[in-house]
Design brief:
The chain is built from eleven helices and seven strands. The protein has 375 residues and is of the alpha+beta class. Its main location: membrane.
Length: 375
């Protein structure tokens, strides 16, 4: 049972929070308002410009800061500034000015109303984001449950057929066991994707980024893919110069594996996959997975990297035909690296391209290399 005092403290902290960001924002807005009023006063000392300027100041401060404190602070300071600096007699307080209490109430009203609306809007945005996360988790659970049920059913059916039919031929037994192996491998990759989603989706996500040569990462991904997909012809294209990219190699290899598997399953007629890595002009490392399959349906392109792809695609009755989870993992991993992932069709199939940011070039290192080459 929570203590009433702790609840009241929480409410006060929500309504009147203090942060260095809000302090800086408030100080900047007030500074600009004072400077603008001083400029206008020099141009026309008789104009009553200060009050509307500081009303706008209170409005902006209440809108751009959190809680009520800084809006109220700006309201009080604005009323004081208008009276002391920008109302005759200047540099003195005059509390007998007609309408002064009304100005004070107007400033406070603007502050309270704007702060209340801003706080309510932010709470609604936060609630909307939480609901979206809950919906995505629910969609993910439904997707995974459906995806896992089919291979498990197949594994149980195949092993039961082997155990219950001792007279099966060696060829039939081998065929059933091959099916079990393939389904088990697919389950392992699904679990790996789930672990990656959990890791990337954590609030304390920390990638194990280190400089890795792209040749080794591509070679590792292709080597694993060849074991699962012996009938697919793979080719790799890398730059002539060594390209070192900061990345979490395990996660990037999983991205490549997911894209390769997607190209085979959903390309349907895919017989060859070409992987390429290069450095772009805007200092990114671009990785490409290009296949010669049937391409991607235009209706699916907008939904490739979210969990809604199951609802956007026609049902196939096969849990393994869903590519929502694998591509969602790819998108999450690439975004966590600060990169981008895109997909498009080409005349001979489909191509997925993801770009990872490169570290800024060190001028000193470049100079040293140039001098060594000159020597």
């Amino acid at each position: 049972m929570s203590h009433p005092n702790s609840k009241s403290k929480t409410n006060l902290a929500t309504l009147f929070p203090f942060s260095m960001r809000d302090l800086i924002v408030t100080a900047l807005i007030l500074f600009v308002a004072v400077a603008f009023c001083i400029l206008l006063q020099r141009l026309d000392p008789s104009a009553g410009f200060a009050t509307p300027v500081f009303v706008l100041t209170v409005l902006l401060t209440s809108r751009l800061t959190t809680g009520y404190f800084w809006g109220l602070f700006s309201a009080v300071l604005g009323v004081i500034a208008v009276n002391f600096f920008f109302t005759f007699p200047y540099w003195a307080f005059n509390l007998t000015i007609t309408g002064y209490p009304l100005s004070f109430l107007t400033f406070l009203s603007v502050s309270v109303i704007t702060s209340a609306l801003t706080t309510k809007t932010r709470q609604l945005d936060k609630l909307r984001m939480e609901n979206e996360k809950i919906r995505m988790r629910a969609d993910l659970l439904r997707s995974v449950s459906h995806d896992i049920r089919t291979p498990l059913t197949s594994i149980i059916g195949s092993t039961s057929a082997v155990l219950d039919n001792p007279d099966l031929s060696q060829e039939d037994r081998r065929s059933l066991l091959e099916d079990v192996k393939q389904e088990a491998q697919w389950l392992i990759r699904t679990v790996e994707n789930l672990l990656s989603i959990t890791r990337i989706g954590s609030d304390r996500t920390e990638l194990n980024k280190q400089l890795e040569p792209v040749e080794e990462v591509l070679a590792e991904a292709v080597q694993k893919a060849r074991k699962r997909l012996p009938d697919i012809k793979f080719s790799v294209e890398v730059p002539a110069e060594l390209l070192m990219v900061p990345m979490d190699p395990i996660l990037i290899e999983q991205v490549l594996s997911n894209l390769i598997e997607n190209a085979v399953i959903h390309g349907q007629t895919t017989t060859a996959i070409h992987l390429r890595a290069e450095k772009t002009e805007d200092n990114f490392a671009a990785f490409s997975v290009r296949d010669n399959g049937q391409g991607i349906s235009p209706a699916l392109l907008p939904h490739l990297f979210d969990y809604s792809i199951r609802h956007a695609s026609p049902p196939t009755g096969d849990g393994k035909r869903n590519m929502g989870l694998g591509l969602s993992v790819c998108s999450a991993v690439v975004k966590a690296h600060g990169g981008r992932l895109t997909a498009h069709n080409h005349p001979d199939g489909a191509e997925f391209i993801f770009c990872l940011p490169m570290p800024p070039a060190d001028p000193a290192i470049s100079t040293d290399l140039s001098e060594e080459e000159t020597l």
